[in-house]
Structure to design on (533 residues):
């Protein structure tokens, strides 16, 4: 249905709105008494009893026994962050541009960079203060290299929240990368890892 | 009084205490399971097979928890109140025949602590004293929610005493005795002799009153969680709270026994089959307490009073008058 008829909030022939049929409230004692008698013998109480009994007999249980069973979560679910590696070379994707640090609205990303011996910018420290992060996803959205993404890890039981978001914990381990376990964040410009992803030759 | 009688009585008391304390625990398990199934949940699943040991876990928790006496409470009354609830619940059991007479090792056992000739009067009276548990506990708690609950419990219990008393009067007039054994024997002839057929109105009224006396769901406003937290139990912790709990569940079992014995023929002619039938009837009434909890909403306190004084009490009185007229002519 188009939304235009719904925009007219006046009840009329054309509009889809209508008044709910509410019986007038009884005023005299006799009317009240009649209402009570009607409700008493209408059997509504038994309808309620029947409904719950039917559900019990059908035994259509909807419980998810959580630690044993888990519900699937959406691919764009925003859980604890991950830092990804390049498929072709295994280098860290983060180029230390600092955009994520800048955009973070709760100001919770801290990073330290230096120029390494090959004159490349190297990220030495990268941490997210999970006590302040609101999981807005801006950092993942702004990152030009698809380096910081949100992972799917929502079970954050630990002695310290910090354990999840220092660089070593967020970064994909190298053996995971070689075994193809690094999940790609399906955002704009995401790569599909296959044979076509090859290492760019440095020597021209 | 000879020694054998004293020993036998003490043994019976101990057995009843143990069995019904355990049943109260199991009752919570069944309540959770039944409510869960009716709401498409699983209920307790993790402690023991199908969560059966949840009861034990709860027991350990209740027994070992710190017993907190808050600062501004009236200490002696606050401490004694849960004991009143539990004690009166079990005292009421003294006059209830749980099982027909049987012979064990050549010794005739009456599974009733005291077959007094005013049995049902005693049961109702003691259950009425149970009112002092919530009332004193709530008033001594120095907590507004508890106070509301205490006021409500006084109002509800006293009002529904009237209903349960008046509704029982008609069957008692027919039987001519207050002893539960006599009432049971009056209906020993089989299903056709059950009092429920001759006194359906009294049966329904007493059943409704039983919900109010045990404070179960349609009339749960004494400890209505969403209005007054746990009512009189709000300030209690550990085993003192547990005593309230055991009292409530024991009361549910005992009132189920009373309904089954007075209106549904009890254990019938005293055979084993009759005894098991009694257990079945009791289980049904207990189950019905859980069933209504899943199905029905609570009524407002004023609606409860209205129902009591303007509908149920006149009905009960009319029922008595009609019964009397029929018996006279
Ligand atoms: S998700 Fe939002 S708040 Fe959290 S680190 Fe990224 S930008 Fe900051
Ligand atoms: S925006 Fe991306 S590439 Fe830039 S510093 Fe942050 S994670 Fe590294």
């Amino acid at each position: 249905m188009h939304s235009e008829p719904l925009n007219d909030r006046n009840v009329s022939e054309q509009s889809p709105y209508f008044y709910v049929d509410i019986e007038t409230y009884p005023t005299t004692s006799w009317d009240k008494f009649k209402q009570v008698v009607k409700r008493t013998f209408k059997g509504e109480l038994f309808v309620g009893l029947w409904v719950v009994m039917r559900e019990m007999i059908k035994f259509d249980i909807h419980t998810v026994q959580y630690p044993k069973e888990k519900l699937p979560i959406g691919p764009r679910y925003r859980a604890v962050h991950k830092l990804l590696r390049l498929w072709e070379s295994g280098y860290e994707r983060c180029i230390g541009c600092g955009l994520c640090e800048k955009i973070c609205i709760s100001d919770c990303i801290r990073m330290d960079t230096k120029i390494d011996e090959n004159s490349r910018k190297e990220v030495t420290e990268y941490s997210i203060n999970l006590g302040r992060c609101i999981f807005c996803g801006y950092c993942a959205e702004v990152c030009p290299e698809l380096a910081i993404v949100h992972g799917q890890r929502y079970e954050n039981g630990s002695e310290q929240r910090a354990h999840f978001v220092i660089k070593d914990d967020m970064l994909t381990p190298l053996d995971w990368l070689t075994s193809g376990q690094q999940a790609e964040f399906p955002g704009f410009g995401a790569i599909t890892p296959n044979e076509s992803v090859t290492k760019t030759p440095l020597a021209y | 009084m000879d020694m054998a009688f004293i020993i036998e009585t003490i043994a019976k008391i101990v057995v009843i205490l143990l069995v019904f304390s355990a049943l109260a625990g199991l009752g919570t398990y069944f309540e959770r399971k039944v409510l869960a199934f009716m709401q498409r949940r699983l209920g307790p699943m993790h402690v023991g097979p199908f969560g059966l040991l949840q009861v034990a876990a709860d027991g350990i928790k209740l027994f070992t928890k710190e017993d907190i006496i808050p600062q501004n409470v009236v200490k002696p009354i606050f401490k004694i109140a849960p004991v009143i609830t539990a004690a009166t619940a079990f005292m009421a059991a003294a006059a209830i025949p749980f099982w027909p007479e049987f012979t064990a090792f050549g010794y005739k056992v009456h599974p009733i602590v005291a077959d007094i000739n005013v049995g049902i009067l005693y049961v109702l009276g003691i259950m009425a004293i149970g009112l002092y548990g919530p009332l004193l506990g709530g008033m001594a708690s120095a907590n507004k929610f508890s106070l509301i609950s205490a006021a409500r419990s006084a109002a509800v219990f006293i009002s529904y005493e009237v209903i349960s008393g008046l509704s029982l009067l008609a069957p008692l007039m027919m039987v001519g005795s207050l002893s539960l054994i006599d009432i049971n024997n009056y209906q020993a002839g089989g299903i056709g002799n059950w009092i429920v057929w001759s006194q359906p109105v009294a049966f329904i009224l007493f059943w409704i009153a039983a919900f109010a006396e045990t404070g179960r769901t349609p009339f749960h406003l004494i400890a209505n969680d969403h209005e007054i937290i746990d009512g009189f139990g709000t300030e209690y912790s550990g085993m003192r709270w547990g005593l309230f709990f055991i009292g409530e569940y024991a009361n549910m079992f005992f009132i189920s026994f009373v309904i089954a014995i007075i209106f549904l023929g009890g254990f019938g002619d005293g055979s084993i089959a009759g005894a098991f039938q009694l257990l079945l009837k009791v289980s049904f009434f207990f189950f019905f307490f859980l069933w209504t909890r899943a199905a029905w909403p609570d009524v407002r306190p004023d609606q409860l009073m209205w129902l009591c004084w303007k509908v149920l009490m006149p009905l009960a009185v009319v029922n008595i008058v009609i019964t009397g007229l029929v018996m006279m002519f």
Q: What stands out?
A: Chain A touches chain B through 15 residues (CB under 8 Å). Chain A has two domains: 4-58, 81-178. The two ends of chain A are 61 Å apart (CA to CA).
